[in-house]
Amino acid sequence: MKDRERCPEDGVRDLVPVYAMKGRVKVMTGIAVALLGLMGVCESVGEAGSLPGKAHAGASGTIVALGDSLTAGFGVKEKEAYPSRLERKLHEAGYQWRVINSGVSGETTGDILARLDKVLEVRPDIVILEIGVNDGFMGIDPRLVSMNIEEMLRALKAQGITVVLAGMRMFGDQENEYCRAFAAIYPDLAGKHDLTLIPYFLAGVAGDPSLNKADGIHPGPKGYRIVVDTVYPYVIHAMEKRSHK
């Protein structure tokens, strides 16, 4: 593998290898990266994690939705992005939790790692971590992506924060080596760190033109309704885990 990719988060680490797909990996920069805050439709990755039990309605706390443009709500109004919708759904069910949208379009795992201290200043009880796809579009070695996410997990857990990890996938043939290695990051880390895992953040949304923006990448308002329905039970599960601490 001759092509090599500079680690995006600091420009200091040694260069890391780019996995070769069947074609050449293209590095996305600038506006293209900002638009590529999503993705994945590799099929049949292990669907880990049991569904939630019951948390106590009436409890309160702070949730930070941490991620890239999928969390930020690229191309939709703030109230239509999943963090705002999630907060409303929780309130309707009697859970008086605040949900803070800490999504930034175009971010990689390295970018989030670099600003994690600012997130910790909010003192969240729960963090929903949705990240990694921009790394994938840049062809960054899944081992480095995993290392960056694991460093975030250690920092969050050290502060007693409960993490909900959103599983992601890349477009491509399910038998593609890079695609499979990327998708495996999330269940592997969830199992290792005993996390609540959303098996696939974009379940029922990715690849459906009626649920996505014209770019075919980012969910529209209808798509985010489904995303919230996907995320919600795992957040309740995380709340239940905290209540037993």
Topology, please?
Elements: E1 4-5, E2 16-17, H1 30-35, E3 60-67, H2 69-72, H3 82-92, E4 96-103, H4 109-114, H5 116-120, E5 126-130, H6 133-137, H7 142-158, E6 162-166, H8 177-193, E7 196-198, H9 221-243
Parallel strand pairs: 3-4, 3-5, 5-6, 6-7
Antiparallel strand pairs: 1-2
Name its key features.
9 helices; 13% strand; Rossmann fold; 245 residues
Description of the structure:
The protein has a single domain (4-243), classed as Rossmann fold (3-Layer(aba) Sandwich). The strands form two sheets. A five-stranded parallel β-sheet has the order 4-3-5-6-7, with helices on both faces. The chain contains nine helices and seven strands. The chain is of the alpha/beta class and 245 residues long. The model is unreliable at 1-53 (pLDDT under 50).
Corresponding CATH superfamily: SGNH hydrolase
Proportion of beta-strand residues: 5-15%
Number of domains: 1
Mean pLDDT: 81
Care to count the β-strands? 7
Distance between the termini: 47 Å
Helical stretch tally: 9
Radius of gyration: 17 Å
The best one-word shape is: globular
Q: Which class best fits the helix and strand makeup?
A: alpha/beta
Strand order of the largest sheet: 4-3-5-6-7
Low-confidence stretches: 1-53
Please describe the biggest sheet, giving its number of strands, its sense, and whether it closes into a barrel: 5 strands, parallel
The CATH architecture term is 3-Layer(aba) Sandwich
Fraction of residues in helices?
25-40%
- Could you give the order of the helices and strands? EEHEHHEHHEHHEHEH
Question: What would CATH call the class?
Answer: Alpha Beta
Q: Look up the CATH topology.
A: Rossmann fold
